Amino acid sequence: MSCDSSEKLSLPEAQEGFLNIVRKLNNSDNLKQFLDWIQWNWLNDCNLKDTETSEEILDAIASDLRSSLPPEAILPSETIRPPAFGKNSDCTQEHTVHVDEFLYDNATVDALCDEGKLARNYCLQCGSFSTRPLTFISHSLSREKLLLIFKSVLPPLDNKIVLDIGSRLGAALFGDRIEIIEGNIAHRPDVILSADVIIMNNVFEFFMEPEQQTSMWRFLRQTIKSGTLLVTIPSLEETFSSLQTGIILSEWVQELPSYNPDAAGITLSADEMLEVKQYQIM
């Protein structure tokens, strides 16, 4: 077979040629190795440049907001209620430090502690060396988790509507064509029904009593349309473990793996990545 290396291909011709190569590979292992080769040699550089640009934009936004907001970034209109049940039930008013992870990453928190502007420990017996670490909690997505969600977990979102419930500073939605809706999500089923992707970062636990959380989840169970992608932190299983919702998860959602698990530029640990779950509504 002869091949003219100077021949130029249109996009449809290139796509068809690529599909012909894929079809001719003799087993799934070779197909995976071929796609890995493309990822490593052609895509990683492009993705890394895009990721670096995204990180620079997010860093600039966070830097601007830090000058206007305190570390906890809790507004007067917000009421924080430490949960009485579940994983975060140890978050007491006295010994919990609220630090917004979008505004203050680990390096910034370390710097504030070194400067004496934040403390990491509290004294169990005044004047002694008997201390215990303070609990740090955030109500916003960190920049690292944002990159994980949009670069690795979710598929391409061209022409899709993304809804971030309880957005607070709007970290998940910095971009073009944004609409801010203020109000109780239970009063806007039309917004939920319009969404192709819904992001929920521990949105109810610190802001509602268990009975209100249960009511809200039942509303979402009845309202979110089939096929919608749901990204939650923590997992639905963990959230529902301390609530009596009556919702059978296996009849409502199917957990999905990350769309691009080998995405470049992800710096989170394996445990941190496991906190982010993606489901599809059945």
UniProtKB/TrEMBL annotation:
It comes from the Eukaryota. CDD domains: AdoMet_MTases (cd02440). SUPFAM superfamilies: S-adenosyl-L-methionine-dependent methyltransferases (SSF53335). GO terms for molecular function: methyltransferase activity. InterPro entries: Arsenite_MeTrfase-like (IPR026669), SAM-dependent_MTases_sf (IPR029063). This is Methyltransferase type 11 domain-containing protein.
